[in-house]
């Protein structure tokens, strides 16, 4: 079974990654009703939200809106478009517990694939968090480099302004000297006989 298909059926609800009963029933090739019956017969295995919980009406309505095309209809052209009751959401631990309740060979194979999908997703999330940390470090380094470049440019501007002022002073002095030189000279006497 393709892990990607299973990963597409893992949702984030109440801050937990879960799979819904109708998706699990589809994967296990049983009716959702039969899956829920098996769970209810063995409810002590699923006590606590860390294994399974039923979606509230509000959560279910949000889910229906988000996943309208993925929710299996009860009857294609009949009475109900969506399951009559809110679905059960099974956490990773709850899905593992289902393997003790559903004992068919299909259920065993599907359960293995689901566990692999959860592990792959956990590994992916760990990698993403590592990349996020590295990216944050790179951002802080980039900001530091930007600040240093900005400070260097400001220092260069200050320096070039000082150098420009110094050159202006030198040019003014040269200009003042060139004006004074012609005034200071007496007209040169011509060489030769005077008339």
What would you report as the Rg, rounded to the nearest angstrom?
41 Å
By DSSP, the count of extended strands is 4
* Alpha-carbon distance between the two ends: 126 Å
Shape: rod-shaped
What does the largest sheet look like? Answer: 4 strands, antiparallel
Give the class from helix and strand content and strand pairing: alpha+beta
Provide the residue-averaged pLDDT: 80
Compute the number of helices: 6
Helical fraction? 55-70%
What is the helix/strand order?
HEEHHEHEHH
The percent range for strand residues is 5-15%
For the largest beta sheet, what order do the strands appear in spatially?
1-2-4-3
Q: pLDDT under 50 segments (min length 5)?
A: 73-81
Task: State the main characteristics.
single chain, 195 residues, alpha+beta, 4-stranded antiparallel beta sheet, 6 helices, 8% strand, rod-shaped
């Amino acid at each position: 079974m393709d892990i990607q298909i299973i990963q597409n059926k893992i949702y984030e609800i109440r801050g937990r990654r879960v799979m819904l009963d109708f998706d699990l029933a589809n994967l296990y090739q049983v009716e959702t009703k039969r899956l829920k019956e098996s769970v209810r017969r063995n409810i002590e295995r699923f006590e606590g939200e860390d294994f399974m919980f039923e979606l509230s009406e509000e959560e279910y309505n949000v889910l229906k809106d988000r996943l309208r095309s993925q929710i299996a209809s009860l009857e294609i052209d009949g009475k109900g478009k969506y399951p009559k009751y809110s679905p059960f959401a099974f956490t990773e631990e709850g899905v593992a517990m289902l393997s003790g309740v559903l004992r068919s060979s299909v259920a065993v194979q599907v359960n293995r694939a689901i566990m692999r999908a959860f592990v792959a997703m956990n590994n992916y999330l760990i990698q993403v968090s590592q990349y996020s940390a590295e990216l944050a470090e790179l951002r802080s380094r980039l900001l530091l480099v930007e600040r240093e470049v900005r400070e260097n440019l400001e220092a260069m501007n200050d320096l070039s302004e000082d150098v420009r002022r110094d050159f202006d002073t030198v040019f003014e002095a040269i200009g003042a000297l060139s004006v004074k030189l012609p005034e200071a000279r007496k007209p040169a006497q011509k060489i030769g006989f005077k008339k």
